[in-house]
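Quinolinate synthase
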Amino acid sequence: MSSIQATLQTLKLVSPEASCNTDLTKGPWLFDTGEADYGPGSSQDDVAPADTPRQGEIPAEYREASDAELTARILAAKETLGDSLVVLGHHYQRDEVVAFADFVGDSFQLANAALTREQARYIVFCGVHFMAETADILSTQEQAVILPNLAAGCSMADMADESSVEECWEQLMDLYAHEDSSDGLAAVIPVTYMNSSAALKAFVGKHGGIVCTSSNAATVLEWAFERGRRVLFFPDQHLGRNTAKAMGIPLERMPMWNPRKPLGGSDEATLHDAKVILWHGFCSVHKRFTVAQIERARVEHPGVQILAHPECPMPVVDAADAAGSTDYIQKAVAAAPAGSVFGIATEINMVNRLAAEHPEHTVFCLDPVICPCSTMYRIHPGYLAWVLESLVDGVVLNRIEVPAEVAADAKVALERMLAARP
Ligand code: SF4
């Protein structure tokens, strides 16, 4: 039995009783033709923008094929495409898709992994839209980046749209226009999380700012404070707050910016005193974790180590034993002595995969209800088979292309991140 067949055989079906939304048991193509939305499992707080890309219906042969047939067709297409293809699978992607990935990792690791395959003309990114954009920014002009389902977006990334950030920036520039600048620092440095559109990465590139990941957010904030009196951090308030708090910045100097309110819902005095202005964005997956879940895990599993992703709310991160990126969590579990017990606050597909990869430990998700990232869920082997077989026929579907001028500015912000050192 091949490792792919073994992986597929160990799949656990999502049962309607245990999942946060019974529609997660259905094929994602059922949600490709309606209104723009994030699909089953997204929270009530997530409202997809009207211009959210829609997938449209894929051919019936891919919607109706059995798992075994799709596996055979994907493997055959991969074989035919050979070195001209690289398939990337994000940690939060479902196992049935990750089974075909040449690289598995976080968004930035995957974009960099694709760079090691210079001969790959096609980069098929089994993640979400901003990840495919980042891969396109970093790849060569000859390479095409493909997102198997165009509706695989990211609700957090969409919470900071370009026009709202531009408007915020104008208000802040007006507010700080007469500030004493004898210290030589900028009034504000914009910092965007990797989970943002290419347009926002370009925005920060143009305005002296920088990109961060969940692995290097503290280093990036230090870089920013060497150049500015404050930081405007978007879109994830939780990563910004958790990171700044760990650096000793008091909460009262971290006002929130709600783009729907005048002055972001804050006031001039607070914004003058601010060190980090936090955009009102969040990840619906990580927002589900609570301190009560941690308390219950400690009672039910004495000695459990709680690891939380920094996209979780601050009380959860504070109550955890450690917090870190997906890479950190993966390494912490791998390095632990056999018999360790981990309660993990991050996306269910990654936690289940860690549990399967480490039978020597007990690894479980803190959220007892299975609620995967609703947008990653939109990619299913049927879409992968569809885009790969089209490539075999010489047709590039679902290409993600960032305009050259946007890519150039975004690359400046990404390169600043790479150059930032602790
Ligand atoms: S887990 Fe959250 S931040 Fe990550 S892609 Fe899904 S919605 Fe976006």
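thats it. The radius of gyration is 21 Å. The chain has three domains: 3-153+375-402, 158-284, 286-365. bye
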